Amino acid sequence: xxxxxxxxxxxxxxxxxxxxxxxxxxxxxxxxxxxxxxxxxxxxxxxxxxxxxxxxxxxxxxxxxxxxxxxxxxxxxxxxxxxxxxxxxxxxxxxxxxxxxxxxxxxxxxxxxxxxxxxxxxxxxxxxxxxxxxxxxxxxxxxxxxxxxxxxxxxxxxxxxxxxxxxxxxxxxxxxxx
Length: 178
Hints:
By secondary structure, the protein is mainly β. It has one domain: Allene oxide cyclase-like (AOC barrel-like, Beta Barrel). The protein is built from two helices and nine strands. It has an eight-stranded antiparallel barrel with strand order 1-3-4-5-6-7-8-9. InterPro entries: Dirigent. Keywords: Apoplast, Secreted, Signal. Belongs to the plant dirigent protein family.
């Protein structure tokens, strides 16, 4: 039997089709969208400065480390359905950039398995309205083994004074899969 005839045999065609289907389905992705309401240096802030140059915890500046713990919601309205939490740290490494390491905890009602995404990367300034892309490096629980990328978009921002005080609403879309 010649090579051309062997490659067109029903068994070979079936095996090739199964391999193609398994490769395509193994790389399927889906989107997870939520809103983060960050507040910094305002009353009842949810992103707190925990370290600063010379011990200064009063202004957003180079060398500051912030810890955030805020509810993520279904819409831009802070009173909309809560989907989970956004927890992590921001490290301000210059006047126009900061690094972020965050855990997105998705809360499935009645579920005892913690389902999370771990996000790492660098973003431009808190005051930027352009889209930022960060890495989704891992998932746990229902998202075990998933990874991909996150796109953060500032929906609204209110600045107060000159020390960096602000309230931000950000739309996050995670594009993830196995």
